[in-house]
# Entry
Amino acid sequence: MGSDGKEMAQCKACGKEYVNGGNKYGTSTLLRHISKCEKVPKGFANTDVSKLMLDQQGKLKARKTDQKVVHEMLSIAIIEHSLPFSFVECKIIRELLKYLCPDAKIPSRRALPQLM
# Structure
């Protein structure tokens, strides 16, 4: 609550407060601020919520998938468990990987050895 008794919303990036709530004061002021706030990471304001995740500190951040890490982890799993390269083409494995990381590009069994 502000000093005038109105409900306030605060930008978590810079701390600036805006009147919030009710029919007269919605969230549009705060939303406009987020698109201009210098402390909000570039492109974050226009990010689809489904593309965000919580980090270990409980803060929202844009989810980015490093394809090299995906390929390296798949390679390690295949080598450590003596799996055939066709393992990456198993339907349920591909579905699992896409479920866990929708933007990951899963290599084919022919492309995987070249990435190792």
Summary: The first helix runs from residue 28 to 36.
